């Protein structure tokens, strides 16, 4: 355990998948743009995130650029475990409160890799990494109707702390958000 460091080291984060495969979180490259577009156009991504409709390569390129220069967000690409070097998803870490060493996760799994435990493994891996770098509290918020996202948080060992009422406004609709968190002392 070390003191809290922000920005975090942006090196690859590597671990194991439950099926024995290798899980790799890596820096984005231009070749990820196509995968970002496919993910960004997927119906559940559109339903549960603030992505624009008809998500384009230009939107994806702007997203990568803005993440590169953001003072309070970091992005890793989840490498496709079946096809190393290809896009398998995104993992964002957002700084919530520096003095409280608190960050929040955001994530997407590429549609062709969903439902096989990938994001649960990613969240477990990055949470361990974050605690190694002095993070005290990691949060996840999800729409209660986003069952897969809530299951990811619980499956990765997060505790459900409550419901934030109308904490999000997406395309003119107010949504409650379930709040999940893990503390470094919970491990
Ligand atoms: C949410 C998301 C990242 C989950 O990724 P994933 O790699 O498929 O997740 P996992 O395979 O680790 O599944 C986790 C759990 O969700 C369940 N699950 C997966 N898809 C589901 C679905 N469509 N409906 C209900 N449960 C689902 C799995 O069965 C698993 O449950 P378990 O732990 O009880 O076995 C993915 O569905 C996604 O990218 N959605 C669109 C973007 C999004 O909603 N991001 C989160 C915003 S808060």
UniProtKB/TrEMBL annotation:
SUPFAM superfamilies: Acyl-CoA N-acyltransferases (Nat). Gene3D superfamilies: 3.40.630.30. PROSITE patterns: GNAT. One of its GO terms (molecular function) is protein-N-terminal-alanine acetyltransferase activity. It comes from the Bacteria. Residues 38-184 form the N-acetyltransferase domain. One of its GO terms (cellular component) is cytoplasm. InterPro entries: Acyl_CoA_acyltransferase (IPR016181), GNAT_dom (IPR000182), Ribosomal_N-acetyltransferase (IPR051908). PANTHER family: FAMILY ACETYLTRANSFERASE, PUTATIVE (AFU_ORTHOLOGUE AFUA_7G00850)-RELATED (PTHR43441:SF2), RIBOSOMAL-PROTEIN-SERINE ACETYLTRANSFERASE (PTHR43441). This is N-acetyltransferase domain-containing protein. It comes from Corynebacterium terpenotabidum Y-11.
